[in-house]
Amino acid sequence: MSFFAKINAKQQMGIAALVMGFSVLISRFMGLFRDKVISWQFGASGETDLYFAAFILPDFLNYLLAGGYVSITLIPLLSKLMEKDMDDAWKFFSTVFCWATSIVVLLSLVLWIFAPCIVPYLAPGFDTNQLLRLTDFLRIILPAQICFLPGACFTALLYIRKQFTIPALVPLIYNGMILLCGISFPYLGISEGMEGFCWGVLLGAFLGSLYLPFMAARAGGIQICLQWKHAYLKRFLCLALPLMIGQSIVVLDEQFIRIFGSMAGTGEVSLLSYARRIMMVPVGVVAQAAGVASFPFLASLFAKNDMEHFCETLQKALKNTLVIVLPITLYMVAVAKPTLGFIFEGGQFGIQETFSAAPYLRIMLLAVPFWCIQQILGRSFYAMENTITPAVVGTIVTLAIVPLYIYCSPRFGGMVVAFLTSFSIVLYALVLCFVGRKYFQKAYQGILCLLFKNVLCNCIPFLLCLAMCFYTEVYLQGKMPLLWVQGLEICLGGAVFSVSYLLAAKLFLPENITLLLSPFLRRLKRQV
């Protein structure tokens, strides 16, 4: 009997969240390191502009085909069919796989052939030589989309089987190959400039997103045949189309920072992007991990029409996630400036840039708990085979926020862009909560009170951490290298925050201590 079979569903979901959270944490740090390598080697040069511009078309193709949401649309339907008839389930899986693979191959091939005609519209400010090199970059990166969409089908199958280890390795292999090829290819004479990073994208997509999930799915048994018709295909398209058409604020958040940050002044796009990169670490580690881990369990409960346990599971996911993310968020707000300096300072990124980007990071971090709420609630709708509601809500919020971006960005600068970015996520999460009352009112019981208590419990640790960072900087500045000072601020601030938080939680919220320490205590007990 497997380890997962010996524990209950709540423990399985917690372990899955830990596995996915650890994976996203490592992946985010690898992404930060990758950006550090790029900025150190090339700075803000024309070569890096070409590299980032090369992703515009592939990302659009991925959004258009809902590549990031194939698992979300496939899991509920496939889970329901597997409960009834395994043979029919494999026919449905084959149908989706054949159509998805055929469409992405065809579109990628067409775009690859006509790339020279398309790139002038992607980057109208580039000269002829730059457009030629951009075409080369685009043609290297485009075939990676052929790996993402079929790979997402295999990943969905692994999620249904409660196999989270392989999906957790996917982003690590992807980022690892980008780093490996980007650094090694120029030294080996295989490529020049940023071209090595482009080859890393393609190889990482093939090995991490396609080959590894396929091998894992095949090891557990998989049946694929040429199948083009199935009764559930229409239902699958009805679920997927809202995700393809309704590009919400969650998907467009980074694009808005680039577009409207450019209206805020020179250099604001870079500062906002650096801040967002750090903000996305807790979002990925806690919010996305909790959403991904809870989704197959919620989908399975909905397939069984067990709405009582569905709401209990959703409530548990929301409570546990908020308890974990609130102290992380407030700690990162307190150490925002030394964190930016420790990670990015060097080369063309100096002290002045750190001071300018720190307020942006603090503002963006305040929205992290709401990122968690919308990630979990969104997947709860998806588990109920309702992709229309999150898409409609997200589209309405996006349309409402764009005029504010257009009016405020050139007048008030990067600070208002950071504020609107956070405000849009907060608004989206709140509206989604309001709309969700109809479906899972019971899951909301006690959430607001829990949120209020945890904010109060984190206030004293937050203030003590701020004070520790301030006095550490004042006392040590000029006495040792700035990098060491920033590292000490992060470490000492973290120690003060952790100790004071544990003491405050012990007095006022002892259940938090149990939640945070129970995985380690269970492991220790098993070993003993």
Blueprint (SSEs and pairs):
Blueprint lengths: L8 H34 L3 H8 L2 H9 L5 H15 L1 H28 L1 H8 L5 H14 L2 H17 L4 H24 L6 H25 L13 H13 L3 H13 L6 H36 L3 H28 L1 H9 L6 H15 L2 H16 L4 H25 L1 H27 L6 H30 L5 H27 L1 H18 L1
Helix pairs in contact: 1-9, 1-13, 2-7, 4-5, 4-8, 4-11, 4-13, 5-8, 6-7, 7-10, 8-10, 9-10, 12-13, 12-18, 12-19, 13-14, 13-16, 13-17, 14-16, 14-17, 14-20, 15-16, 15-21, 16-19, 17-19, 18-19, 20-21, 21-22
Brief rundown of the structure:
This protein is mainly α and 528 residues long. 83% of the residues lie in helices and 0% in strands.
Care to describe what's here?
The chain is an all-alpha fold. The chain has 22 helices and no strands. It has helices at 9-42, 46-53, 56-64, 70-84, 86-113, 115-122, 128-141, 144-160, 165-188, 195-219, 233-245, 249-261, 268-303, 307-334, 336-344, 351-365, 368-383, 388-412, 414-440, 447-476, 482-508, 510-527. Residues 1-6 and 520-525 have low confidence and may be disordered.
Q: SSE string, helix = H, strand = E?
A: HHHHHHHHHHHHHHHHHHHHHH
Structural class estimated from helices and strands? mainly alpha
The largest β sheet comes out as:
none
* Computed CA radius of gyration, to the nearest angstrom: 23 Å
Portion in helices: over 70%
Global morphology: globular
Uncertain runs = 1-6, 520-525
Number of helices: 22
Strand content: under 5%
Distance between the termini: 21 Å
Mean pLDDT: 79
Number of strands: 0
